[in-house]
Specification:
Length: 76
């Protein structure tokens, strides 16, 4: 989400809608990834029943810097 849309519950509502529609699309599992410093995204994922399954470091496509990513999963 862009900064202009943070703290408004939009990401949370979008994720809820995705999880509601997923079974109709035969999606049984959803994966998500966020940077370690993106606390807001981590909270949205955890609030919606995602579990952190791994951590890894990658070179950021935009910044070119090494970033730590948290990987999450939710079975539906």
């Amino acid at each position: 989400m862009g900064e202009a849309f943070t703290q408004k519950g939009i990401a949370n509502e979008a994720l809820k809608l995705l999880m509601k529609l997923a079974p109709d699309l035969n999606v049984m599992q959803i994966h998500a990834k966020t940077t370690s410093d993106n606390i807001a995204s981590q909270k949205v994922l955890m609030k919606n029943g995602f579990e952190r399954i791994s951590i890894n470091e990658e070179i950021g496509a935009v910044s070119g810097q090494k970033l730590t990513f948290f990987h999450y999963r939710r079975n539906l």
